[in-house]
């Protein structure tokens, strides 16, 4: 029986293959509160990786407006509908089925050492988006949910939720610990690298079965009709191998993204930025953990969006994550380390593997211990005299 332990759902679950964790796991934290949907990330990936024939509909990085946007269209409502009831116990254990359990399959028949003919990855719950679903990369942009209100209404920053709301959700492949694309591939062309946990498709082996496209619930494996191959985000492995962050991270204008290694909770290192946000501060949460893939992109939830919507999207812990984030932004001493780390996000093209926060600054170190980023805890400010006698001019700005 291929039983694996998925810490994000707090229990063992069925999976096509036996559990095998890589030496290191590619990971990321995105702070949704800072994303401005400029799509610079989208275009930096597009111009780097998917500008060829047959890739016109591919956006390995996309940014969609929630709750109504999505690429491919409706990817999350499609899979959530198929999943059935999704209850979480008060102990944080998921009580519903994952996409590997919905169809009640005996995965014994398809372990890796079995005959390929025995393989039945199509039993992973999923669907294949059609051409129209891929044709509208930014549908629903800026479409709000909730109640309208008078334009001069003042909403305090700390107010729990806004009556009218939307938020931007940037998405890349999650380089899942239990990758459905790899689990569904009948010829094992989709695989997970042992050295960094990046999930790739070997195009020489790909037989165009498109089972990875059907199995990936996040819509991040995409078919290239010109090449007759399925393709997906490669985690920018050539940069990652050099200790750098991926293209869409380096070019993020809002500095909302942090790349690094993520460990399982029992091996968490509090001075590793991703581990700290995921396991220590518990301010960053996985996207739809109930699907069962243990995705490795984590999100700081948007603080002014209704919690019930966010609970479905990020699972238990969302309320606490919002409160912790708000406290760090307020400057509470208890969350000073998190505040410093939030300052460090997006500050360098090098991967920060360790960090520390001193009285004056937050400092990031690479894998060899060299300093790669220093950011002041307080931005120095100089207020000009209101009247500039030299130029006989009044100044109102602060620099
Ligand atoms: S997000 Fe989809 S394509 Fe990426 S590793 Fe997970 S299952 Fe595979
Ligand atoms: S990590 Fe690299 S390949 Fe993946 S979406 Fe970002 S830029 Fe594209
Ligand atoms: S570049 Fe950054 S801020 Fe701009 S849309 Fe992408 S994730 Fe959001």
Salient structural properties:
399 residues, alpha+beta, Alpha-Beta Plaits, four-stranded mixed sheet, three-stranded antiparallel sheet, 11 helices, 18% strand, binds iron/sulfur cluster, iron, Dehydrogenase, metal-binding
Task: Write a concise synopsis of the structure shown.
GO terms for molecular function: 4 iron, 4 sulfur cluster binding; electron transfer activity; metal ion binding. This protein has 399 residues and is α+β, with helices and mostly antiparallel strands. Helix content is 20%, strand content 18%.
Question: How would you characterize the overall build of this protein?
Answer:
By secondary structure, this protein is an alpha+beta fold. It has one domain: Alpha-Beta Plaits. The chain is built from 11 helices and 19 strands. It has a 4-stranded mixed β-sheet. The protein has a 3-stranded antiparallel β-sheet with strand order 15-16-17. The mean pLDDT is 94. The structure holds iron/sulfur cluster (3 copies). One iron/sulfur cluster binds next to helix 1 and strand 7. One of its GO terms (cellular component) is membrane. InterPro entries: 4Fe4S_Fe-S-bd. One of its GO terms (molecular function) is metal ion binding.
């Amino acid at each position: 029986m291929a039983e694996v332990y998925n810490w994000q759902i707090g229990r063992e679950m069925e999976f096509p293959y036996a559990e095998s964790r890589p030496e290191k796991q590619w990971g990321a934290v995105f702070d949704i509160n800072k994303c401005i949907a400029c799509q610079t990330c989208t275009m930096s990936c597009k111009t780097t990786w998917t500008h060829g024939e047959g890739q016109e509909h591919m956006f390995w990085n996309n940014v969609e407006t929630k709750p109504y946007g999505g690429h491919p269209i409706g990817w999350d409502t499609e899979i959530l509908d198929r999943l059935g009831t999704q209850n979480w116990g008060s102990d944080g254990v998921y009580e519903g089925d994952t996409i590997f359990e919905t169809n009640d399959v005996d995965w014994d028949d398809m372990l890796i050492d079995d005959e390929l003919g025995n393989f039945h990855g199509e039993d992973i719950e999923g669907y294949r988006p059609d051409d129209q679903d891929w044709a509208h990369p930014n549908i629903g942009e800026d479409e709000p949910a909730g109640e309208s209100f008078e334009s001069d209404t003042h909403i305090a920053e700390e107010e729990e939720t806004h009556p009218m709301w939307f938020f931007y959700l940037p998405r890349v492949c999650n380089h899942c610990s239990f990758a459905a694309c790899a689990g569904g591939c009948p010829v094992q062309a989709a695989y997970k690298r042992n050295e960094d946990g990046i999930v790739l498709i070997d195009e020489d082996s790909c037989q165009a079965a498109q089972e990875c496209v059907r199995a990936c619930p996040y819509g991040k494996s995409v078919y290239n009709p010109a090449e007759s191959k399925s393709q997906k985000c490669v985690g920018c492995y050539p940069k990652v191998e050099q200790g750098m962050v991926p293209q869409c991270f380096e070019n993020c204008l809002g500095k909302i993204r942090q790349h690094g290694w993520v460990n399982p909770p029992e091996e968490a290192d509090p001075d590793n930025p991703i581990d700290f946000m995921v396991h220590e501060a518990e301010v960053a949460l996985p996207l739809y953990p109930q699907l069962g893939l243990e995705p490795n992109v984590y999100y700081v939830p948007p603080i002014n969006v209704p919690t019930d919507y966010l609970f479905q999207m990020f699972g238990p812990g969302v309320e606490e994550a919002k409160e912790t984030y708000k406290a760090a932004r307020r400057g509470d001493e208890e969350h000073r380390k998190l505040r410093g780390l939030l300052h460090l996000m997006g500050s360098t093209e090098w991967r920060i593997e360790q960090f520390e926060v001193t009285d004056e600054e937050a400092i990031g170190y690479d894998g060899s211990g060299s300093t790669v980023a220093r950011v002041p805890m307080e931005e120095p400010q100089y207020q000009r005299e209101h009247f500039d006698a030299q130029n006989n001019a009044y100044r109102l700005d602060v620099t």
